[in-house]
Design goal:
The chain is about 35% helix and about 25% strand. The protein contains 15 helices and 24 strands. It holds the Pfam family EPSP_synthase.
Amino acid sequence: MEQYVIKGGHPLVGEVEIGGAKNAALAILAAAIMTDDTVLIDNLPDVNDVNVLLDAIEGIGAMVHRVDRHTVKINGTNIRNMSVEYDYIKKIRASYYLLGALLGKYKRGEVALPGGCNIGSRPIDQHLKGFRALGAEISIEHGKVVAEAHNFQGEHVYFDVVTVGATINVMMAACLAEGITIMENVAKEPHVVDVANFLNSMGANIRGAGTDVIKIRGVKSLHGTQYSVIPDQIEAGTFMYAAAATKGDVTVLNVIPKHLESTIAKLKDMGCEVEEFDDAVRVVSKGNLKSTHVKTLPYPGFPTDMQPQIGVILALCKGTSTITESIFENRFKYLDELARMGAKVKVEGNSATVEGIEGFTGARVSAPDLRAGAALCIAGMAADGITIVDDIVYIQRGYEHFEEKLRGIGALIEKVSSEKEIQKFKLKIG
């Protein structure tokens, strides 16, 4: 099993380039099969989740051609298999987007019930509610969701909760339904807007993405396009918070600052200096950070995917902070690991109280999920001594060349796979 070994205590300084948004890329790749023309997508992150989804797309018969690490051509002409196997779904939840894509294009799809990061219950009931509203018949057979539509009509869909996955999935299917679909109480995340823009570039008629109401006028068919995925706001936020935790000075390049407003606001609350440019953000931390309170909310609120990263910084802030997690109930697992590094934390239900300490000490910790894994690496870079992070397969699901980018701004971090390599690293850094 691969691990990260980190020598802490070095401020991160320099520039780091941010890749394409993983969560946008996954939905866009699924939507690319909805035309029989060739679609070219670039600025894809080269991460495990994207590669697994491309395998799943190939698995149902689509042509997938990797032009380079960040560019792919997809052609869905020869899809004959309407069933997405469990092997793909258990690795990556976003494979369920293929259900909306297949249902829209072929009026039938089968997808195994999803897997992914273990951060709490993430039911797909709102996806199914939306598909049923459009006229699909839904059944669960042999561990699969089977959706079939004989009369696929636009309809009024009101989501009981704000959900990114269901917003995107139902939006994809509704593009090729007859008539007008109005979706209310939808998610407003940047990647929802990006998927809508992608579908519109293929000839869909979607209005209102980024607001509470999305209106879709169904079209007969979609056509080919070339499209570039937006930058990843969570990758950007992770490096910004790494700068804050290590008393660093880091500029993240290739970002849309508007997408980072809540992330930036909390950095300022804690006492960091933040400078915004057209497509870059610079974060300077001089230490002496102060406590604040955080509540995760759907966009434009503070992202749940940034909660573990801010948790690490709050543990180093002067005073007592609180974190309220309103999206996923299992998102505090990393705090047990952080306590091994000296953090003073107390969890009660969906709230955590964090009492600031002088500094972390290196320890052996385990990544419970993707974002928590990245957060523990940040803690390791801020800690005194050596930190070993196990189960980094989670981190590799969502961050491209994580350790290489960190080394580029001064981190002492290596990917290792044996005790011998850990000892070699310790000898090398002295």
